[in-house]
Design goal:
By secondary structure, the protein is of the alpha/beta class. It has 5 helices and 5 strands, in the order E-H-E-H-E-H-E-H-E-H. The protein has a 5-stranded parallel β-sheet with strand order 2-1-3-4-5, sandwiched between helices. The protein is globular. The modification 4-aspartylphosphate is found at residue 52.
Length: 126
């Protein structure tokens, strides 16, 4: 099954998501700030990155730009996870280099569909 890098600084969210994704058979790598997320992406070469946009050290917008500018990480799909659900926030995430956008609170079945789409799989029921 696919390897997912979850870059999230709120423990309750990364705990919830990592446990549920592992139960679905995904391998989950965690990073708790944007800088660590960029490092983990470069070393671990995940299949998909779930990227919180409000991160310490290096925010998600900057991390997405760094990942999309690197020849070794440019092709990895990034799904932005953010509480920013205002008009224009989806466009801002896409412009930063994210391939998709998922507003918080997380709708796990919708997120699974987005992960499947990013992996080029047919959508799974959640």
């Amino acid at each position: 099954m696919a390897k997912i890098l979850l870059v999230e600084d709120h423990e309750e969210i990364w705990d919830f998501l990592s446990r549920r994704l592992k139960r679905r058979g995904y391998e989950v790598i965690l990073a708790h700030d944007g800088e660590a997320g960029v490092r983990q992406a470069r070393s671990g070469q995940p299949d998909v990155i779930l990227l919180d946009m409000n991160l310490p050290v290096l925010d998600g917008w900057s991390a997405a730009r760094a990942l999309k500018s690197g020849s070794d990480t440019r092709a990895i799909p990034i799904i932005a996870l953010t509480a920013h659900a205002m008009s224009g926030d989806r466009d801002k995430a896409i412009q930063a280099g994210c391939d998709d956008y998922h507003p918080k609170p997380v709708d796990f079945s919708k997120l699974l569909s987005q992960i499947s789409a990013a992996l080029g799989e047919t959508a799974q029921a959640g």
